[in-house]
Amino acid sequence: MEQRACKSCARAKRRCDKQGPQCSRCRRRGIQCTYPTAKRTAFVLCKEDTTSSSSSGHHHVHDVFGHEVIGDSANKLSQNETQPVSDWLDSSSLDTWNLGFLSLPVSPRSVPSEQLVRYVAMLREWLTQWVEQGSNPFIHAFLYRTYMPPCVQDAYTAFSSYHHKKLSNEQMIFRIIEDRAKQLIASEGIPAPKASNFNLNSLEHLARVQSLIVYQIIGLFDGDIRLRHFAESQIPMLDNWVQAMVAHAAEMVSSSGGTNLCSREQLQQYIGTDLDITSHENLDWYSWILSESIQRTWMIASGIHAIYLMMQQSVSRPCLGYTVFSTRPGIWEAPSAVTWSKVCLERNTGLVQMADADRLFSEAAPEDVNEFTKVFLQATFGAERMERWITHAKDQR
């Protein structure tokens, strides 16, 4: 017998985990959970395999970004299944912000120095794309369209000056960058490790992390000794801010009993008056933008320090956890809520947990994966496997 979604989730058009006697969503919201009569199905549930991961086909690798990745070949990604827009926000809700951690005794693979140099060049290219086009794979075009926090404005102008610097003025620009970074730390730094995450809202948490990322990319990889020394001293600060950002997201989702990362009033401020705040489509879209931006920014922040550590000491960082992120092209790039909803409804959106990222090699074609995911896959599994994947896809055409 196939168990259908509970009546409450069905009415709200939300994903139901079909747990008994009450699903997770109804339990969180404190509402009655009633299941309809199950209908017959041709499928029979198998008993869950209780063997350890070491004997079940799982494999583990350390990626360049300091994440430990576990691949599950038995968990298939259906490329033909469409996904309701509301599922994007509810299916990952609390689980999205409860980072998984793996502590397996594995040996990280070595990464060629030239590949690390390419990653650094890519990070600079993405920041250049941001100042020239207004967005990049981890800073969404609509994120700061209406409201750009002052710290982001400073980081934007600082990198723009850095990008256009000349030999005659680079020392002046370096001083400006250092001063802006110090100002950010002084104004946004958490005074105590256990300070409340509610002192900042979700966008402010994200803004200060993205701003410090800009200064860290410049400082750690430019070559200027003074800037590098300062950037090295801020590695723990960025780690703390990232942890606070994710913890705040989890707290907001938990306290709202759903997937809201910010209040309706804050959404009104972020979206502005040019979009209809009463439109659920606009609210869902911006909520997704905020959620996806936090997840991608967390991965970038982890990657920056992991790359620097590998370039400096040829060692990888400890596992920093894993989360979920979108993999399909066209979703991040959607210029409006209408387009975003249309893309989400017409095709599988490719919401993938980092722990299952290797599924993409067997279940998706390279053209079905976005730029951000391709960079993550190459950093995790290496250029050789990426090349085999691309070559195999061409041979199948």
Secondary-structure map:
Blueprint: H1 7-12, H2 24-29, E1 59-62, E2 68-71, H3 85-90, H4 93-97, H5 113-133, H6 150-163, H7 170-188, H8 202-221, H9 225-233, H10 235-256, H11 264-271, H12 280-313, E3 324-326, H13 337-346, E4 351-353, H14 359-363, H15 371-381, H16 383-395
Antiparallel strand pairs: 1-2, 3-4
Helix pairs in contact: 5-6, 5-8, 5-12, 6-7, 6-8, 7-8, 8-9, 8-10, 8-12, 10-12, 12-13, 15-16
Q: Could you explain how this protein is built, in words?
A:
With 397 residues, the chain is mostly helical. It folds into 2 domains: 1-45, Zn(2)-C6 fungal-type DNA-binding domain (CD2-Gal4), CATH 4.10.240.10; 59-395, no CATH class. It has 16 helices and 4 strands. The strands form 2 sheets. It has a two-stranded antiparallel sheet with strand order 1-2. The chain has a two-stranded antiparallel ribbon with strand order 3-4. A hairpin with a 5-residue loop joins strand 1 (59-62) and strand 2. Helix 12 (280-313) crosses helix 13 (337-346). The chain is globular, with a radius of gyration of 22 Å.
